[in-house]
Write a structure and sequence with these properties.
6 strands; two-stranded antiparallel sheet; 52% helix; 263 residues; four-stranded mixed β-sheet; alpha/beta
């Protein structure tokens, strides 16, 4: 009985994805994309490919606005950057385990309870994005600005890098890799992560590690998310200062972002 239900649901999913292939990409949506630096520099083939991926993404995820209405612009921009990361990575569907994208208008203050020695304390902390379980949380004020203006940071890229990291079942800074590439990946990223931790602890003589910043030293997962941001947002600086790191990211994402971003 359970197998029959599973096969039926798989069939319905395939049929739905097949139906989505017939939906045309609207010209007014393409006009929004023309304001996004990375889209303009894609090849014509990649533009068509990412537009198809965006349609599948937008129609298979639930977008929820908190104290705001979800607009087409929000769906287009978020879908574009989510799909850009997987543009040349073969998957059955964009972020199959992701169900919901929650969008806030401004940075969110969350309450957290910390325990130390049996003493519990409450504290507030502010976020502009978060990835947890099957949900991504984004702040539109920051996401919109970073999508249209190249800089080191891009909260959409950051949170969807976490989603990619979790595709193998763990958020540990190691995304799904071919077994033959695992040792080289972990060696290169762990080396720079440990050096960054040392520099961040001293908080002086940052040198080239200023490009990555202290937040990347939080843990291996945040390091992967931050270097993915730099790979897409400031690839020339990343390759100049961290050529081995750039190579690992280029080989994983199968895209040379130097061609997408002007110096």
């Amino acid at each position: 009985m359970f197998l029959g239900i599973t096969l039926f649901l798989d069939y319905r999913k395939r049929q739905r994805l097949k139906a989505l292939e017939k939906i045309p990409f609207k010209e007014e949506h393409r006009k929004v994309l023309l304001k996004v630096p990375h889209y303009k520099n894609l090849s014509d083939i990649d533009k068509k490919k990412i537009e198809r991926s965006m349609i599948r993404f937008a129609y298979t995820k639930e977008f929820i606005g908190i104290k705001m209405q979800i607009t087409d612009e929000m769906k287009i921009v978020i879908s574009f950057y989510a799909c850009l990361l997987l543009l040349h990575i073969e998957t059955d569907n964009c972020y199959d385990n992701l169900k919901t994208i929650i969008v806030y208008p401004a940075p969110v203050v969350l309450k957290n309870v910390r325990e130390s020695g049996g003493i519990y304390t409450k504290e507030d902390f502010m976020i502009d994005g978060q990835s947890a379980n099957d949900t991504v949380v984004l702040v539109w004020h920051d996401a919109k600005f970073e999508a249209y203006h190249l800089r080191h940071d891009n909260v959409i890229v950051h949170e969807f890098a976490h989603e990619i990291d979790f595709m193998d079942g763990e958020i540990d800074g190691v995304p799904p890799l071919e077994r033959s590439k695992y040792n080289e990946w972990t060696s290169v990223l762990y080396k720079d992560y440990k050096k960054l931790q040392t520099v961040a602890a001293k908080n002086r003589e940052w040198g080239k590690y200023k490009l990555l910043g202290s937040y990347a030293a939080t843990n291996e997962a945040e390091f992967f998310a931050v270097v993915t941001e730099r790979f897409f947002e400031s690839p020339h600086s990343l390759k100049s200062h961290f050529p081995e790191l750039y190579k690992e990211l280029r080989d994983f994402y199968h895209i040379d972002t130097l061609s997408l971003v002007s110096k």
